[in-house]
Amino acid sequence: MFKVGDSVVYPYHGAGQIKDMEEKDILGEKLTYYVVYFPLNHVTLMLPEKRIQESGLRKIIETTQLEELAVALKTCEVPVKKEAARPYSKENETLLKTGSILDAASVIANLTSKEGERNNGLHMEDRKNLDRAKQFIASELMLVNDISEEEALSFINENSQSQGA
Fold first, then answer.
1. What are the DSSP calls for 41-85, one per residue?
2. 149 and 83 share one domain
3. The CarD-like/TRCF RNAP-interacting domain covers which part of the protein (predicted)?
4. pLDDT digits (tens, 9 = 90+) for 136-160
Protein backbone atom coordinates (compact mmCIF):
# COMPACT_ATOMS: atom_id res chain seq x y z
CA MET A 1 0.00 0.00 0.00
CA PHE A 2 2.46 2.66 1.20
CA LYS A 3 6.19 2.49 1.74
CA VAL A 4 8.85 4.44 3.62
CA GLY A 5 9.59 7.68 1.76
CA ASP A 6 6.09 8.11 0.30
CA SER A 7 4.59 11.58 0.54
CA VAL A 8 1.06 11.28 1.90
CA VAL A 9 -1.88 13.36 3.10
CA TYR A 10 -3.74 12.64 6.29
CA PRO A 11 -7.17 14.29 6.63
CA TYR A 12 -7.18 17.45 8.73
CA HIS A 13 -3.41 17.18 9.36
CA GLY A 14 -2.12 17.89 5.88
CA ALA A 15 0.80 16.43 3.98
CA GLY A 16 3.71 14.53 5.40
CA GLN A 17 6.13 11.78 4.65
CA ILE A 18 6.27 8.17 5.81
CA LYS A 19 9.53 8.06 7.72
CA ASP A 20 9.41 4.50 9.03
CA MET A 21 7.33 1.41 9.60
CA GLU A 22 7.50 -0.04 13.09
CA GLU A 23 6.22 -3.27 14.51
CA LYS A 24 4.79 -3.06 18.01
CA ASP A 25 3.66 -5.81 20.33
CA ILE A 26 0.30 -4.69 21.75
CA LEU A 27 -1.29 -7.13 24.21
CA GLY A 28 0.44 -10.06 22.55
CA GLU A 29 -0.56 -9.00 19.02
CA LYS A 30 2.09 -7.76 16.58
CA LEU A 31 0.88 -4.64 14.81
CA THR A 32 2.59 -2.64 12.08
CA TYR A 33 2.50 1.15 12.29
CA TYR A 34 3.36 3.80 9.71
CA VAL A 35 5.39 6.62 11.23
CA VAL A 36 4.36 9.80 9.40
CA TYR A 37 6.11 13.15 9.89
CA PHE A 38 4.24 16.38 9.07
CA PRO A 39 6.91 19.06 8.48
CA LEU A 40 4.60 22.08 8.48
CA ASN A 41 3.33 21.28 12.00
CA HIS A 42 6.46 19.44 13.21
CA VAL A 43 4.24 16.53 14.26
CA THR A 44 4.88 12.80 14.02
CA LEU A 45 1.99 10.32 14.07
CA MET A 46 1.95 6.55 14.25
CA LEU A 47 -0.90 5.12 12.21
CA PRO A 48 -1.81 1.42 12.50
CA GLU A 49 -1.51 -0.34 9.14
CA LYS A 50 -4.81 -2.17 9.57
CA ARG A 51 -6.66 1.17 9.89
CA ILE A 52 -5.01 2.98 6.98
CA GLN A 53 -7.89 2.30 4.57
CA GLU A 54 -10.51 3.88 6.85
CA SER A 55 -8.21 6.71 7.99
CA GLY A 56 -8.31 8.47 4.62
CA LEU A 57 -4.52 8.48 4.23
CA ARG A 58 -3.67 9.03 0.57
CA LYS A 59 -0.71 9.84 -1.64
CA ILE A 60 -0.15 13.50 -2.50
CA ILE A 61 -1.51 14.82 -5.79
CA GLU A 62 0.53 14.72 -8.99
CA THR A 63 1.91 17.92 -10.52
CA THR A 64 -0.51 17.33 -13.42
CA GLN A 65 -3.38 18.07 -11.01
CA LEU A 66 -2.16 21.57 -10.09
CA GLU A 67 -4.21 23.24 -12.82
CA GLU A 68 -7.35 21.49 -11.50
CA LEU A 69 -6.46 22.81 -8.03
CA ALA A 70 -6.00 26.36 -9.37
CA VAL A 71 -9.45 26.19 -11.00
CA ALA A 72 -11.02 24.85 -7.78
CA LEU A 73 -9.52 27.74 -5.81
CA LYS A 74 -11.36 30.17 -8.10
CA THR A 75 -14.69 28.31 -8.28
CA CYS A 76 -17.13 29.47 -5.64
CA GLU A 77 -20.31 27.48 -5.24
CA VAL A 78 -23.28 29.78 -4.81
CA PRO A 79 -24.94 29.19 -1.42
CA VAL A 80 -28.46 27.79 -1.60
CA LYS A 81 -29.85 29.52 1.49
CA LYS A 82 -29.53 33.07 2.73
CA GLU A 83 -26.69 33.76 5.12
CA ALA A 84 -27.27 32.75 8.74
CA ALA A 85 -25.12 33.60 11.76
CA ARG A 86 -22.61 30.85 10.93
CA PRO A 87 -23.83 29.30 7.69
CA TYR A 88 -20.84 27.30 6.49
CA SER A 89 -18.72 26.43 9.52
CA LYS A 90 -19.97 22.82 9.94
CA GLU A 91 -20.05 22.23 6.19
CA ASN A 92 -16.51 23.59 5.86
CA GLU A 93 -15.22 21.49 8.76
CA THR A 94 -16.76 18.41 7.14
CA LEU A 95 -15.08 19.24 3.83
CA LEU A 96 -11.71 19.72 5.54
CA LYS A 97 -12.00 16.35 7.27
CA THR A 98 -12.34 14.51 3.94
CA GLY A 99 -8.64 15.02 3.23
CA SER A 100 -9.39 16.03 -0.36
CA ILE A 101 -7.32 18.92 -1.67
CA LEU A 102 -10.22 19.91 -3.94
CA ASP A 103 -12.60 20.03 -0.96
CA ALA A 104 -10.11 22.28 0.87
CA ALA A 105 -9.90 24.46 -2.26
CA SER A 106 -13.69 24.70 -2.26
CA VAL A 107 -13.60 25.94 1.34
CA ILE A 108 -11.07 28.62 0.35
CA ALA A 109 -13.06 29.68 -2.72
CA ASN A 110 -16.31 29.93 -0.81
CA LEU A 111 -14.86 31.76 2.18
CA THR A 112 -12.77 34.22 0.17
CA SER A 113 -15.88 35.03 -1.87
CA LYS A 114 -17.88 35.51 1.34
CA GLU A 115 -15.08 37.63 2.82
CA GLY A 116 -15.21 39.94 -0.20
CA GLU A 117 -18.98 40.42 0.25
CA ARG A 118 -18.78 41.36 3.94
CA ASN A 119 -17.76 44.76 5.27
CA ASN A 120 -16.53 43.47 8.63
CA GLY A 121 -14.73 40.32 7.46
CA LEU A 122 -15.42 36.70 8.27
CA HIS A 123 -16.78 35.21 11.49
CA MET A 124 -14.10 33.70 13.71
CA GLU A 125 -15.04 30.10 12.81
CA ASP A 126 -14.91 30.94 9.10
CA ARG A 127 -11.49 32.58 9.54
CA LYS A 128 -10.22 29.46 11.34
CA ASN A 129 -11.53 27.21 8.58
CA LEU A 130 -10.00 29.44 5.90
CA ASP A 131 -6.63 29.30 7.66
CA ARG A 132 -6.89 25.51 8.13
CA ALA A 133 -7.73 25.02 4.45
CA LYS A 134 -4.79 27.18 3.37
CA GLN A 135 -2.38 25.34 5.68
CA PHE A 136 -3.72 21.97 4.51
CA ILE A 137 -3.19 22.82 0.84
CA ALA A 138 0.13 24.57 1.50
CA SER A 139 1.51 21.47 3.22
CA GLU A 140 0.68 19.37 0.16
CA LEU A 141 1.96 21.93 -2.36
CA MET A 142 5.27 22.09 -0.47
CA LEU A 143 5.81 18.37 -1.10
CA VAL A 144 4.35 18.27 -4.63
CA ASN A 145 6.47 21.16 -5.94
CA ASP A 146 9.35 21.08 -3.42
CA ILE A 147 8.65 24.72 -2.49
CA SER A 148 8.60 26.76 0.70
CA GLU A 149 5.50 27.46 2.78
CA GLU A 150 5.56 31.08 1.59
CA GLU A 151 5.64 30.00 -2.07
CA ALA A 152 2.77 27.57 -1.46
CA LEU A 153 0.66 30.23 0.24
CA SER A 154 1.47 32.61 -2.61
CA PHE A 155 0.15 30.03 -5.12
CA ILE A 156 -3.06 29.72 -3.08
CA ASN A 157 -3.56 33.49 -2.77
CA GLU A 158 -2.80 34.13 -6.45
CA ASN A 159 -5.33 31.52 -7.53
CA SER A 160 -8.13 32.33 -5.08
CA GLN A 161 -10.65 35.10 -5.64
CA SER A 162 -9.48 37.29 -2.77
CA GLN A 163 -5.86 38.29 -2.34
CA GLY A 164 -6.20 38.31 1.48
CA ALA A 165 -4.00 36.03 3.58
1. TTEEEEEEGGGHHHHT-EEPPPGGGHHHHHHHHH-PPPPSS---S
2. yes
3. 1-112
4. 999 999 999 999 999 999 999 999 8
